[in-house]
Write a structure and sequence with these properties.
By secondary structure, the protein is an all-alpha fold. It has one domain. Helices cover 85% and strands 0% of the residues. The chain starts with a helix and ends with a helix.
């Protein structure tokens, strides 16, 4: 039952987001035109920012892994040289 409610909310949000798209400029009532356009722009920007954050986290994780591997290799080389 809870999933139905969540799914309904997501569906309503998706419809509102889609209705804010510029393709619907002439079809929206003027009273809700600006709020729908703003909502569409904000959701789009949040998606772009979220994707950038995921890439940044992934790059940071990869850099940390490489640094760890380099440190371990350096320690092995030092211990083998002694």
């Amino acid at each position: 039952m809870r999933w139905r409610s969540v799914l309904g909310s997501v569906l309503v949000a998706a419809i509102i987001y889609a209705y804010g798209h510029p393709l619907f400029d002439g079809l929206r009532p003027s009273s809700i035109d600006a709020p729908l356009q703003i909502f569409h722009a904000e959701v789009t920007q949040a998606a772009i920012d979220g994707a950038r954050a995921v890439v940044t986290l992934d790059e940071t994780r990869a850099a940390r892994y490489v640094k760890t591997r380099i440190d371990v290799t350096e320690q092995r080389i030092k211990s083998a040289a002694q």
